[in-house]
Amino acid sequence: MLYPQSNSSRAMISLDGFWKFAPDVNDDGEQRGWPLQLPADREIGVPASWNEQFQDLMYFFGTGWYEREIELSRQLRSERIWLRVGSANYLSTVWVNGTEVGRHEGAHLPFVFEITDHVRWDGPNRITIRVDAAIAADRLPPGDVEDEQIVGFKGQYPNNYYDFFPYGGIHRSVTLFTTPMSFVRDIRITTEIDGTDGKVKAHVGLSEGFEGACAVSIRGTQCRSSVEVGTAGPSVDVDFTVPAARLWCPEDPFLYELEVRLTDGNGQAIDQYVQTFGIRTVSIRGTELLLNGKPVFLTGFGMHEDFPVLGKGISPAVIAKDFNLLNWIGANSVRTSHYPYSDEFLSYADKHGLLVIGETPFVGFVRSHYQGTAILNKAKRVITEMIERDVNHPCVIAWSLANEGDTLAPEADAFYEALYSHAKSLDDTRPVTIVNCVDVEKDVALKHYDFVSLNRYHGWYEQAGRLDEGCRILSEKLDRCYEVLGKPVIVTEFGADAVAGVHVDPPEVFSEEYQAEMVTRQYEIIRQKPYTIGAHVWSFADFKTSQTPSRVVVNRKGVFTRDRQPKLSAHKLKALWSGGSSKKPSRT
Questions:
Q1: Is 434 helix (H, G, I), strand (E, B) or coil?
Q2: Are 291 and 281 in contact (CB under 8 A)?
Q3: Sheet with 197-206, edge to edge strand ranges
């Protein structure tokens, strides 16, 4: 389903704001009639995690219930009515006026249910959403797997198996929107470059039963086409050539607008939708990552959707602040570690030229996941949801299908090959990777992927306090990786914790000086290798984690604090990246 729009044929109503809320401590709310009437003991903000809004919910990882009432204009009675939730963690069930309309498993991606037949026009409509945020071994990402946890996660509270806080709640916007009875269901755009021209292919999916004309055009150009459509699962495919095209890139993130209009047999307007896109190509050639046929070296960060009080809740102000800081420091890219980011973040990246590696929530995989097909099927479904949602974003230049999974198990070979093949079947225009955190000699999965992503913490988790030794070993390990796999390499994580305000000379662990020296020295090592395509510091900003002796309240590896104030390392990276050191040295 396309992102909601408000135009002459569609309406959009935000349900963001205060909702009634009740924690379901005994998980029996449905049996007690809560879909019909919620005995709410408080109001809570949406979108936002529930954990930091109330002290007693900080460590609540059960089921939370939300309720909101809204009256709809009778002018909408001839339309289809849809309810969209941008994301909720983790299992969601939705009722409208006491009738269940749908369920969704998984956080970080939207779900949409048509509610036309359940809407009342003579009074308020009650919308109820139940969100189950329990930590479990069969969820993505998993938790409660104590017998398989490695040192560093054992005994942490709460007992998730990944290094970020398992926030619960409705994290992105809730929207009611309308479409006509016949409507534009989907748009898929792919682009190529032919000399100075842009080649644009558009596939337009239409609702069942539509009969009439489908007009497709690119605004501001002479590209337009009109097709008469029948009723057998209609879709339209068009090819356009844009002469002297402006190519999307960080320096000129120009967006074209593809407009689709539907009219009936009498020429009366039925539906309209405008999809932005960029004309650009991404490919791997030898040891280079090419954007529009030119080598690009990725500088930037892994980062989390994480902010005080909001938790993982979306905020336009936080997105604007983060992009301002990314621009200030000279970064050109990020990885959405370790889950798909919001539609709004990616649209902002499209407009501002930030390159993005889009990642699934497959972090913390354990060997039991390779048994049977249950987790594989979940993984494929989430990959499908991510690619179908994000495929038209020019900012997304690659897909990352997993972070730090157990890729040494023999069973991982077929598992990750299946994930790669599935992703490529959905989108063959972008390279695909997974992220490795162990020595590559015994890794059975990396050989299937287009480039290698490595998380390496030499000088921190290994060789702690011995930065000279850590830098030497990092250099050796990188060379060995290329020797074994012969693929281009990006270091997707490297860095050290630093507690803001702690200064030690000579540098010691947890001081700002140690973090600054580590990231700058190791960045230069990575940048000088002839086979590397990028270096992402871990991480952009401090973020909340489960409680463990290795974390000082939050993970302190950010070069900015959790409230986005720079540490010494941010100033050092700014000097490197803004001064031209983000460019690869010549290979000639």
A1: strand
A2: yes
A3: 184-194, 197-206, 235-242
SS3 55: helix
Q: 462 an active-site residue?
A: no
- Both tokens of residue 79? 């339309």
Asked whether 569 and 516 are in contact (CB, 8 A), the reply is yes
Domains identified in the chain and CATH numbers: 11-179 (2.60.120.260), 184-277 (2.60.40.10), 282-579 (3.20.20.80)
Using DSSP bridges, classify how beta strands 396-403 and 355-359 pair: parallel, antiparallel or unpaired: parallel
Distance, CA of 297 to CA of 288 (rounded, Å): 8
Helix axes 374-390, 412-426, angle to 10 degrees: 30
Instruction: Kindly report the length of the chain.
Output: 588
Q: Which residues pair with 189 in a beta bridge?
A: 202
Amino acid at 234: P
Q: What is the pTM of this model?
A: 0.95
What is the distance between the alpha carbons of residues 139 and 516, in angstroms, rounded to a whole number? 36
Output 151-155 pairs: Cβ under 8 A, ≥24 positions apart. 152/461, 152/548, 152/550, 153/548, 155/548
Contact indicator for 241, 198 with CB cutoff of 8 Å? yes
Amino acid at 72: L
Report which of 63, 57, 70 is spatially closest to residue 31, judged by C-alpha positions. Answer: 63
What SS3 class is residue 239?
strand
Residue in the structure block whose two tokens are 């991510």: 386
CB contact at 8 A, 127 and 92: no
422: left (phi over 0), alpha (psi -120 to 50) or beta: alpha
Residue whose structure tokens are 């479904």: 381
Q: Which of 493, 512, 513, 517 is catalytic?
A: 493
In the set 52, 288, 385, 404, the catalytic residue is 404
Q: Please name every residue paired with 510 in a beta bridge, in sequence order, or none if there are none.
A: 498
Residue found under tokens 């879909």: 35
Q: Quick one: 158 exposed, middle or buried, by C-beta within 10 A (0-12, 13-18, 19+)?
A: middle
Q: What is the Cβ-side half-sphere exposure of residue 2, based on CA atoms within 13 angstroms? A: 25
588 CA to centre of own chain? 37
Identify whether the C-beta of residue 41 lies closer than 8 Å to the C-beta of residue 147.
Answer: no
CA separation for the pair 564, 552 (Å, rounded): 17
Residue type, 567: K
Walk along the chain (588 residues) in steps of 10 and give the mean pLDDT of each run: 94 98 96 94 96 97 97 95 98 98 97 97 96 93 70 75 93 98 97 98 94 95 90 84 98 98 93 98 97 98 97 98 98 96 98 98 83 93 98 98 90 95 98 93 94 96 95 97 97 97 96 98 98 97 92 93 98 89 50
The helix/strand/coil state of 587 is: coil
**End-to-end CA, the chain:** 48
Is-catalytic flag, 493? Answer: yes
Considering only CA atoms, which of 155, 179, 168 is closest in space to residue 83?
179
In contact, 112 and 82? CB cutoff 8 Å: yes
